[in-house]
What does this fold into?
Amino acid sequence: MRYEVADTVESAASLLAGEAGQSYVLAGGTDLLVQLRAGLVQPDLVVDVKRIDELRTISEADGGYTVGAAVAGAELGEHASIGNVWPGVVEGAELIGSTQVQGRASMGGNLCNASPAADSVPALIAAGATCTIVGPNGKREAAVADIPTGPGQNSLEKGEVLVSLHFPARPANSSDAYLRMIPRTEMDIAIVGAAVNLTLDDDGTCTAATVVLGAVAPTAIEVPEAGAALVGTKVDDAALEAVSAAASAAARPISDKRGTAEYRTKVVGVMAKRAAKIAYDRAANKGGK
Amino acid sequence: MARIVLTGDLARRFAGKDTEIKVAARNVRHLYQLLDELYPGMGEVFASRALAVAIDGDIVADAYLEPLEDDTEVAFLPAIRGG
Amino acid sequence: MTYEPKDLKVVGTRPVRPDGVDKVTGRANFGADHALPGQLVGKVLRSPYAHARIVSIDTSKAEALAGVKSIIVGEDMQDIAHELSQSGESAIDVHDLSLNVLARGKVLYDGHALAAVAATSAKIADDAIALIDVTYDVLPHVVDVDDAMKPDAPVLHDDMFTKGLEETPTTASNIASRMEMAMGDVEEGFKHADVIIERSYKTKAVHQGYIEPHAVVASFGEDGSAYVWCSSQGHFAVRDLSAKVLGMDSSSIRVIPAEIGGGFGGKTTVYLEPLAIALSKRAGRPVKMTMTRAEVFRATGPTPATSMDVKIGATKDGKIVAADCEFRFHAGAFAGSPVGAACMAGLTPYALENARVVGYDVVSNTCKSGAYRAPGAPNGAFSVESAMDELATELKMDPIELRHINAAEEGTKAIYGPTFKQIGCKDVLVATREHPHYKSNLGPNQGRGIASGFWFNVGGQSNAAINVHEDGTITVVEGSPDIGGTRAAMAMMAAEVLGIDYDRVQVVVADTASIGHTDGTGGSRVTFATGMAVTNAAEDVVTQLRTRAAATMGVDVDDVVWQDGAAIATKGDAGSLSLAEIAATAARTGGIIVGRSSINAKGAGPSFATHICDVEVDPETGYIEILRYTSIQDVGKAIHPSYVEGQMQGGAVQGIGWALNEEYFYNEDGILENPGFLDYRMPVASDLPKIDTVMVEVPNPSHPFGVRGVGEAPLVPPLAAVVNAIEDATGVRMTELPVTPVKMLAALDARKEAAE
Amino acid sequence: MSKIHVTTTVNGDPTEFLCEPQETLLDVLRDELQLTGSKEGCASGDCGACSIELDGRLVCSCLVLGAEADGREIETVESIADGEKLHPVQAQILEHGALQCGFCTPGIIVAAKALLDRNPDPTDTEIRYWLAGNLCRCTGYDKIINAVQDAAADLRGEAS
It folds into this structure.
């Protein structure tokens, strides 16, 4: 195995592209090093991207945010304003692992690692986040939802590096939330997770909503029916039950050591409705209604 | 004479049922000898060290020289593994 | 030795432990912290199958790899006859132990060791392991204990004929033995019952979960002797068991104890040590071996999975008239589960006239089970205490009241034979009933459970020596690895007897060549038995100090008493001499003063505990939160109360983990799917509330300071306490552990469907 | 494959070492630099026994490559006491008997100090969540939480 430090996105891309064997990007390393140690991956090249400024900074422009792909969860959590605008995105990222893991783990890594249960991904998709990718053929933009393609599989081409994530400016009275079910209070992989991003009008009626579920399919999935169930309502009990039913209906989970398909199907609905309620309360408080 | 309480598998195997007998033994080692005479083969069980002995409720391992007073209660139990 | 109430100056206080600073600064040396010049790295090849015949092992490619210095396989080990090694309180069959250390003929579980390599680096050792070519003939396997008992189950050992039956069977099976204990007439007893509860229960294998993986450095010398540095709960057992497995003399192996990073029973046997010695012998260089976390889970110590039936009958006023239990414990790949202790302990908090317990020790294709804190008792208590809770509900009786009516006390004859002396069973129940926790209010979806538990505690062999130095300080030399602050307890007892300040005492846990055999740190025995040896050694020192003082002062030794750290002449005006004064002239009055004691301690005195647990169950997700927890225990006399409380709290939390989340998760191929801390889910700090403790002090009449063992009883009640609280919160009786949210929700939904 | 030469700062001291590319910082600390206070309990970031600070950020050293340390600042448990003077977190852990075997203790101390450096007056719940990545199998955590609270009070200059 070779270890290289890249100073620029372009040099990272060319290093990765130039390696004939297996090459990996080292961002937070909290997944890669575990896999390395367990012998699950045998890289010929690892490219450390943590010294590239673009991947390490959070910037704000016109109400939108750009977050470097290797920004650690703890750094995201400490940012002055993004947590107010995108509380669901930040809480999703902050649920990845322990305080120690938060010191390293990044949303970019979580996204590219493409676990169906990745905690930061449902809220990213619900937020409508996009990302910038640089590769041997230059720069491209993609929807976050298009990055994971299956368990452990992503859509990046050889030599491509995820540089940053972009969050659009939001309308007033908007907020989001992410909730997951784990058997303990910390340190677990989500049995199921659900993110809800919504916008209210000045009366507190939901005008737009996106519901995304984690760990109930090979990738995180958006459930348009669940979002639709919220639009036009004041997110009352009936709407929440409809969200729950739609989420459960859309789930197509497996049974494994962490939970049964039956459990996941039921509880993802519970997580979705509870996340919707939290997002609603957050948005309503912002709107002053 | 010490009071010997035979229970469980030891009793079933050698005495047929739970049994309490009086044995004039000076100490535990002597008791093992006398019991082996009473119940041939029992000495082998003691020698295998699979059993512990409880003397007046106190569990002791390998207590050959523990003196047995009049009316001392002696019981045998499977050796316990601590954690 | 007997208990005498006395004024205490040191015992019962909470000083900083002697090894404390080293442990907070990172200086303390644990198993993997030791290194020798020129050491090699040893690694183990482990079975990827649950059950397979080893057709061949070809090590030629590995041997050819540059940097590989020695390799051993099963054929290199000598065959050993079945024999119980009574190393301390633990009876271990050395034939089985040898086969567990390195498989021969067959591999019996996922993770079973079958070859070991020593090389100049970890990387080369790993590469060499990958180059060993093993041909397996995969066999059918069985994991579940009930499945393993079936007549058509794959048989692990063709020489296993069930022991303990009227007639020894002629066909081999996985049932190693059957045992039975009984008193009175159970069938007759049930005839008088107004209420009978009959239930079956199951528990999964759980691991001790110590954070320090097993580690050893061994150095075999040209003179045929070996030095071994390792962390264990008993370095004398490491020496003796390694000697047996390798056909060496005990005197040829010197084991130097490292600090130990947790054990809970799991470090009372050997896994790596014989391999490291053998590899070092072949290579002519020291060999260091450390297990990965996955190896710890796959190949060491879990407590058995169990399947249990309990039937208890009582009259309508709550008097238990009969109890009948059958406990089936899987021992893992080799016989020797703690089913015997379960049979003896499960019903023991109660005074019963008619009772019967039948136990089966069963093998299956899982890692050989090891001791885990009160081995067998938590499982047994889970079943019995769950049934007791149902009985109380049926009788519309307070669960403490039901237990108190039937509680064992002085004079109660236990099912395993002996009659109790002074015990604290009732005192603990009374303290539980009076605790504010028991009277506090609960909210919606919340419930409260209690459960009791018993553990024997053991005594056994301990050695101690006390060296009195010229400046009046002393060193206590003893043989019990300090797993939880016992150096402090030893120093405190020595200081108390000698009448000197605690900080004048240093404590050394000596190696196997430097102090006499001391049984392992297990069975809740160290503060009791080694404490007794230290107390005796201190008394021996006092006798010598009095003799020297009498000679110095020119009075009769009978006229000299020891008080507040000084010899005081009771007649005439000879005055007094302090320990420091006598020590200062010891060289001129007969030589340095050394006190000694070698004992086989008896009268450990059983522990009784009752726990109160409050939970809240989320009806939509099945998530169970522990809201409040109180542990009440008869601790005899707490020498260092902080460390006694710590035992009570730590045991309770291990029990909470066992009840809610921890389990060995085997897939259909018999492969362990969760050999890591991510998916073997032990409690983390944020899972828990404060764990309150109440130390009930009923002195043990057989110990000079009234000490009872306290380390194991705390793990006995929690399993049932949690499940009883869940029942109180939801009305659903959970009979299989762990009660994960997945299982809880399924049970809640099943009840909902049944009601509809 | 040749080793990587790394120049870094460990516990305030300029330090150089050679490491294999796949070697973790934990392995380097323990095997190359003989700083064995950081422990390996899992090598997967689940137990926290190897906790260190990397450029002032609490991390598991088993999840950092040795090579990544180049130009960084590393603080291990060995640097927490000031010579003979224990840090309040260390002193209070001893006073409370908030350790039994002591194996997880270095990681707990590094993590707890990192918390108190940021939050001088945490609630019990904040301490429990901050330390959720530090497994302790002996104590049930209770005494650790109390010790951290008293250490926080000491650092704030309050008598505890």
Q: What stands out?
A: Chain B has one domain: 2-78. Residues 2-78 of chain B form a domain with the Ubiquitin-like (UB roll) fold (CATH 3.10.20.30). The radius of gyration of chain B is 12 Å. Chains B and A do not touch (no CB pair under 8 Å).
